Write the structure tokens for this entry.
Amino acid sequence: MLRLRFHGRGGQGAKVASRVLGTAAFLDGYNAQDFPLYGAEKRGAPITAFTRISRENIMERGVISEPDIVIVMDETLLSDLQAMPLSGLKMGGIIFVNTPNSPLETKERYNIADHVITLDITKISLDMIGNPVLSGLAAAVASRIVGIGEDAFRGAVEKELSGIISDRELLVKNTEAALYCYNAIMPVQIKAAESIREGENVITIPFETALVSSPAINATGNTPLRRTGNWRVFRPVWDYEVCTRCMTCVARCPDGCIHVNEDGYPYADYDNCKGCLICVEECPAKAINKVREMHSRSGEGDR
């Protein structure tokens, strides 16, 4: 089995890239599995997507913590201490980096010892498509690295992108750019070991069948540390003259950000409330209003 992990930023197409690769592998006779992990779900925020391909049945589930291949769609992520795209990469693994720099320059700049492949797919996308649309191009690189046939890859690009792009001319441009990238990469032999590099800070959850157990992480939540209240566009504000203290809002808050004061009325922890406004939608008495945030600093506004 080959395990690939895509690292990009929201809007670059990491999710679609993993899906195109999975479909290409399936069309080429493999079993495939692909899925994303969104994180902040904001444009520009780090996003991760995963693809497993195998000639045998794939019984693993969950995120890929120890990949054979890493596709870095945005070079700046290599310096991001939260994204850490090279975390867990197996010894002898392969790294693709979207950069105008050569593999040697990239290895020296980021102190990488593993096999590095580079190609400026952003420039290719701008030149051939007119926009920095990287999904098909990143999938092309990944498909070439793992040895997917060109016909299978072309079929996957057309199948997956046609469901997203309605403009036939734009679809053709995307396909041409993807095939250009596919043929710009030389095939490589993958010799990843079954062990990761020493010193990596990786949490590995052992795989067990669902009949035995399901994975669990017992650790303190870090939402308060992230100050997710800064994500808010609207904040919920209670009208206590209407509120019946039914506590529906407390039960429905997905982040546990609604507490109860000494008088028995609910209120929001604005430092961590993301402003999803589920409480506004769920309140049966319509006692919660949404108010546009005028300040991004946490702790300000009505309480």
Remarks:
- The chain has a mean pLDDT of 85.
- The first strand starts at residue 2 and ends at 9.
- Strands lie at 2-9, 31-37, 46-54, 69-72, 94-98, 115-119, 234-238, 258-260, 266-268, 288-292.
- Residues 17 and 138 are 6 Å apart (CA to CA).
